[in-house]
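Lab notebook: predicted structure, single chain.

Context: the supervisor wants predicted structures on file for every construct in the current expression panel, including those that have not yet been purified. This is the next one on the list. No modifications to the sequence; it matches the entry in the shared construct table.
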Amino acid sequence: MGIRLANTWMERARHMKTPDIRLYKNDLPDGLVFKDAIAVDSEAMGLNPHRDRLCVVQLSGGDEICHLVQFELGTTQAPNLQRLLEDDKVVKIFHYARFDVMLLKQALGIRVNPLYCTKIASRLARTYTDSHSYKSVCLELVGVQISKVQQSSDWGADILSEEQLIYAATDVLYLHKIREKLNIILAREGRLGMAQACFDFLHTRTDLDLEGWLDKDIFAHA
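Prediction complete. Output recorded below exactly as produced.
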């Protein structure tokens, strides 16, 4: 089913129009088609993929629509979502892909491919700053002030609040524009190839995370 949310104080504070949010249960609907790139994010009960379950996956095709999948407790498969996220013709854009890729792999057996991480890209491109959070990148590159208040809310609730849904949408609605801006800087500084190599390594990195090397630098001397 699809829903369009009413204006709230959060939207007025950000001077943006209400996002168009389509809410689904446990999987994307049949027949949903995206073009060459989609923005993806996820919400979970916590940061430990072995303990904390996947609750929400949100996606946008760059058209100001957010497709949000809410997962019920015990869901272990989402065939339509898996086909999309493993489609090698569609680039999946994340901010801090390391966590989302690991969570999707652990919860639903999905190996996302190909992918792009705006946080990695930001670290390689925006070397003039130490601020690489989604909030910071949004403000500088697309001029949008976002709220992160709902980040630590209860994403496992049966009914998500209006504020949670809007928060989830804003986490994907700007990723296409951010990617474009970061690619301009990366190309100018000659680092596009380095960025792609880092994106390609993310599956190895998340496999190591899930196998117990989450906080270990296997390249370190000591």
